[in-house]
Structures are given as C-alpha cells and as structure tokens.
Amino acid sequence: MADLSEIVKAYDVRGVVPDQLDEALAELFGAAFVRVTDAAAVVVGHDMRPSSPGLARAFGLGASRQGADVTEIGLCSTDQLYYASGELDLPGAMFTASHNPARYNGIKMCRAGAAPVGQDTGLAEIRALVEEWSEAGAVPGTDKPQGTLVQRDMLEGYAAYLRNLVGLSDIRRLKVVVDAGNGMGGHTVPTVFDGLPLELDAMYFELDGTFPHHEANPLDPKNIVDLQRRVRETGADIGLAFDGDADRCFVVDENGDPVAPSAITALVAARELAKDPGATVIHNLITSWSVPEVVKENGGTPVRTRVGHSFIKQEMARTGAIFGGEHSAHYYFRDFWNADTGMLAALHVLAALGGQDGTLSQLVAQYDRYAASGEINSTVDDQTARAAAVKAAFADRDDTTLDELDGLTVTAQDWWFNLRASNTEPLLRLNVEARDAATVERVRDEVLGIVRA
C-alpha cells in the first residue's frame, strides 16, 4: 500500500520521484480524480522536469480508463493549465513541483473553471481512493467505454487571452530583463511578449528541470542576484523573475532593487479598481498596510484573509472580488477564473510603467510606504509553547490589539507583526512592519528574543 501521508499536502501532491511518486501512482491519481470529480473529460499539462511527461501521460491513462476524455496540452505553466481549465470548462491536472529541487514532482488539481482542489474540496477523497486501490492492487472496473487521449496546444490562446486583458500596444518601448530560471517562463514569455513594444533580454530560458543556474525560487534573495546584476549592467527599465512553474512573478526596478510583492499588489489593485470602481480586493494578513490603504483610496473594499491560495480563492468567489494578492507574489484575478497568474500581474506592471515617463522606482514609491522585516524563520522545539509565550508578552499591553485569524497578529499604532507556525517544518515565521526601520528592528528583536529563548 502506498504511503501518501508524506506527499499529499493541503493543496496538492508533491514528493520525490520515483521513491514517493511514480507513474503507477500517477495513474491511480488520474483514476481517482475522475471518480471524485465525476468528470466526463479532463485537461492535463506538465512542466519541464524530466519525470513530468511520463507522469502526466500515466495520469491521463488512469483518467481515460475511467471513461474520461483527456486533452493533453503538454508543456505549460501552471497558470496556462488554469487557462485551459477555464477556457475548456474542464477539470485539470498540472504536473509540477514548482520551485522544489529537480528530484521532486507533484500534481496540482482543479475542478472545471480552475476551481481549486484541496483537502476540503476533494483531495482527501482522492487520497483515500488511491490508498484503497493501492492496497487492493487494482482499480475497480467501470461500465463506461475508455476515453480518448488527444493533444492540443493552448499556448497561443493563453497568450492572446492575457494580452486582451491588459492594453500594452500604446506604451513606450521598455527594456525588460526576464530570468526564467530554466523553468516554464522560458516557454510562455516569448509567446506572451511577441509583438509587444518590449525589448526582451532573456536569461535562462532553456527548459531544464535540473535547474543548472539557480533554484527557480525568486522568493530567496540569492536566486535573483543574476537578474539584479543584468538589470544594472544593461540599464534595463525592469527585471522580472518567474518561479519553476511560472505562476509567480517577482519584480526588480531599474536599480536592481526588489519591489515588494505588497507594492505590486497595491499597484495592480489600483488599476483593476479603475475598471470596476467600488469592487472588493482580497489581501492576506501579511501584506503591507499600504494595500488596504490604496484599495480604499481608489474606492474599493479591502478584505483581509488567511495566507494560502485556497483561502484567497474562497474569498474571491464569496465576495466577487476583482483581484487578490499575497506577500508571496501570488496574484489572483476575477478575469482569470479567480486563479493566480504571475504573468497577468507582470503585464499590469509593464502597462503601468510604460504608460508614464517615470522610472519603476518612482512609480512604486507611492505604494511602498512602510519598513518591513521580510519573513524571518526560527527553528523551535515547541511551536505552540513559543507562540504562547509571545502572546502572553503582548496580551496585557494597552497599546496593542491581538487577533488569531492565522497565527498571532499583534497590532499597535506604528507597527504590527505576525507570527505563524509552518505546517511542514518545526519553524515559526515572523513578519514585522512599521513606519520606520528602527521600529521594525526593535519589534523584531523583542519578538525573536522570546521565540528563541
């Protein structure tokens, strides 16, 4: 019997190939996916990892043997798979391990219209079936005839759909450096940018799931050093870095300095609200104070939620929000089936930059209003005890308020911090924001003194 406890996460499947995830198991997941979603047809795509084509084909075979017709779209970014799910109105599966090392792979699944599949929305049932069939050594038959497997290229449609959402034809010509990290941005960017007034300087566009240059994880500062250097050396207007499956996009300005994802969230929110005044914008509780401020200044309604794409997408659907953003550079759009797409966020930034004469650093200054610590991780023996100690230290102060929507958030007039436990590691994650850097350092040191005592 397959042990799935290590690979079935809250929102996806992810493990080492072939030790934890192989083609036989992928086939079982394909069959279970069809059973749980009751799908008559599904769409399947994959990233550039060496194991991805075989795993994706096995999943498709498992789905077809349960009677579902399978559309294989081949190499794609995760948001391109979401596009296919939305455009074709089919449940979908994407084979990727995002920014994880080369030995990993995984499955991100969604229902028709890119609606997420997580533990509470079908993933637990899929796991249970896979475990049952693995133990039995066979998948029960079905009275449905075997489905078909057909190949279809969705890249041109994806690119055209995104370009139709953001007007870029009239912007001034921009010099753009893009670091694809040998990931799927190298597949999607050339087609999306084709014909736009952009001079593209392509870095690491060769698809290579062994990631020979650096990890495809721009959230780690060491992985954008090459991009920062290239922007400075070439005098580019902007730099963009995509993660392995190209659903997240990070931005650096003309000086090579990183632009905070919260500033990008605020910028895109302002642009989206210009199209739909009074709309709702979702932001997680670790985004900057500047995000709800900008949303209100532009006539919108900010809604705060927990960290994680399932919570963001639930709130997007519940409120009819036009846009949602996270501190991790995930950006969600109502016009994109409430799914996340870093590429669409990047196009918004390019349109805003090219639509005026100033630099990117000047443009985002209005959205980057506070000092922040960034995420600080502490390894602890007892997450619950250390978090309780921090709560006790701040609970009786007259100048602070506490809430526990997601971890512990403590707010004062001039600063706030959030302390959250990792779901997968013995870590506590701290984020601090304040009106000035000195206050950030003071609050950071006080909290870490308790956490690491």
Automatic annotation (TrEMBL):
<keyword id="KW-0460">Magnesium</keyword>
<dbReference type="Pfam" id="PF00408">
    <property type="entry name" value="PGM_PMM_IV"/>
</dbReference>
<feature type="domain" description="Alpha-D-phosphohexomutase alpha/beta/alpha">
    <location>
        <begin position="158"/>
        <end position="256"/>
    </location>
</feature>
<comment type="similarity">
    <text>Belongs to the phosphohexose mutase family.</text>
</comment>
<protein>
    <submittedName>
        <fullName>Phosphomannomutase/phosphoglucomutase</fullName>
    </submittedName>
</protein>
<dbReference type="Pfam" id="PF02879">
    <property type="entry name" value="PGM_PMM_II"/>
</dbReference>
<feature type="domain" description="Alpha-D-phosphohexomutase alpha/beta/alpha">
    <location>
        <begin position="264"/>
        <end position="370"/>
    </location>
</feature>
<dbReference type="InterPro" id="IPR005843">
    <property type="entry name" value="A-D-PHexomutase_C"/>
</dbReference>
<dbReference type="InterPro" id="IPR005841">
    <property type="entry name" value="Alpha-D-phosphohexomutase_SF"/>
</dbReference>
<dbReference type="Pfam" id="PF02878">
    <property type="entry name" value="PGM_PMM_I"/>
</dbReference>
<dbReference type="InterPro" id="IPR005845">
    <property type="entry name" value="A-D-PHexomutase_a/b/a-II"/>
</dbReference>
<keyword id="KW-0413">Isomerase</keyword>
<feature type="domain" description="Alpha-D-phosphohexomutase alpha/beta/alpha">
    <location>
        <begin position="7"/>
        <end position="135"/>
    </location>
</feature>
<dbReference type="InterPro" id="IPR036900">
    <property type="entry name" value="A-D-PHexomutase_C_sf"/>
</dbReference>
<dbReference type="InterPro" id="IPR016055">
    <property type="entry name" value="A-D-PHexomutase_a/b/a-I/II/III"/>
</dbReference>
<dbReference type="InterPro" id="IPR005846">
    <property type="entry name" value="A-D-PHexomutase_a/b/a-III"/>
</dbReference>
<keyword id="KW-0597">Phosphoprotein</keyword>
<keyword id="KW-0479">Metal-binding</keyword>
<dbReference type="InterPro" id="IPR005844">
    <property type="entry name" value="A-D-PHexomutase_a/b/a-I"/>
</dbReference>
<dbReference type="Pfam" id="PF02880">
    <property type="entry name" value="PGM_PMM_III"/>
</dbReference>
<feature type="domain" description="Alpha-D-phosphohexomutase C-terminal">
    <location>
        <begin position="375"/>
        <end position="448"/>
    </location>
</feature>
